[in-house]
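Page 47, continued from p. 46.
Same chain as before, 166 aa.
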Amino acid sequence: MKSNNDVKKIRTACPAHCGIDCCGILAHVKGDQVIKLEPADFPDKRDNRICLRGLSSLDITYHPDRLKYPMKRTGKRGEGKFERITWAEAYEIVVEKFKKVSMQYGWKSIGWVLGGPGAGTTKFGAYLRLASLTQSTRVSAWGYGDAGLPCGSRVILGHQFPYILQ
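Result:
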């Protein structure tokens, strides 16, 4: 940790965590707020990287319209009318909806998809456990760009390498 004019540089990992690994970053922290992100140094300079998604995480984190609490729709869909509710209320709503769907259509009708920002190993393990405990459907959507073909193949064909199944 280095300090320069009340700004600390803290080595951490990118919060976007786009794939199986994640980029190392230096977070510039002033007070209790991150003010800048940049690639962390690695022995192999090819690993010194951060994408636009990672760089935009500051905008996402500190955006004034970011949701920080559960909200419940009070008007009709599309009206934009919501009220803040407690976490306990939100949890109960989710539990009741899962129960209703599982009773009507079975647990296999509920699909768990993990991918996108923050889809790291810890969340992946929790997601696998939840799908396993509920006997529901698990869809693996790891990857972006070139990884889209294997991920899409798993969802559509049930296997990452459909050409091997011939």
